[in-house]
């Protein structure tokens, strides 16, 4: 393996560690507001938006699978709406959108904060 390949692999590892730490911090901030399924989608969306790769570190389509889980859990309309809000929350750095979902979850008795 050439020097550049070794250096690139170390760069990716460092970048992945920093990204993991950032995502973990953001998840801690919202964990009590959103359901586990919503958390999984939000986490994947952050990786895709910030780092350009999905949670698995590849292009396996993890976000699509997690969106389907949201739809299965919430229903077609609500699942799609929540997915859109979570994507917007990531892309626009808008915690208020996550709070909206939290209020929705609280109204349905899914969370208690």
Tag the structure with descriptive keywords.
about 110 residues, mainly alpha, 5 helices, about 75% helix, about 0% strand, globular, disordered N terminus
Walk me through what this model shows.
This protein is mainly α and 113 residues long. The protein contains five helices and no strands. Helix 1 packs antiparallel against helix 2 (36-51) and helix 2 packs across helix 4. The longest helix is centred in the N-terminal third of the chain and has 28 residues, at 3-30. It is globular and about 45 Å long. Mean pLDDT is 82; it is low at 1-9 and 54-59.
What order do the helices and strands come in, and which of them pair?
Blueprint lengths: L2 H28 L5 H16 L10 H13 L1 H16 L3 H13 L6
Helix pairs in contact: 1-2, 2-3, 2-4, 3-4, 4-5
Summarize, please:
The protein has 113 residues and is mainly α. The chain contains five helices and no strands.
Structural class of the secondary elements? mainly alpha
Number of E-state strands? 0
User: Separation of termini?
Assistant: 52 Å
What is the helix/strand order?
Answer: HHHHH
Binned strand content: under 5%
Tertiary shape? globular
- Put simply, the count of helices is 5
pLDDT under 50 segments (min length 5)? 1-9, 54-59
Rounded to the nearest angstrom, the radius of gyration is 16 Å
Average pLDDT metric: 82
Sheet of most strands: none
Instruction: Please estimate the helix content.
Output: over 70%
């Amino acid at each position: 393996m050439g020097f550049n390949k070794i250096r690139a692999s170390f760069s990716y590892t460092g970048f992945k560690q920093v990204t993991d730490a950032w995502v973990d911090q953001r998840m801690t901030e919202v964990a009590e507001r959103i359901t586990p399924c919503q958390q999984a989608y939000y986490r994947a969306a952050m990786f895709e938006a910030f780092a350009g790769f999905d949670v698995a570190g590849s292009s396996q389509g993890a976000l699509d699978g997690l969106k389907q889980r949201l739809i299965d859990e919430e229903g077609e309309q609500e699942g799609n709406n929540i997915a859109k809000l979570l994507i917007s929350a990531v892309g626009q750095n808008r915690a208020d959108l996550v709070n909206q979902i939290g209020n929705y979850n609280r109204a349905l008795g899914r969370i208690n904060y």
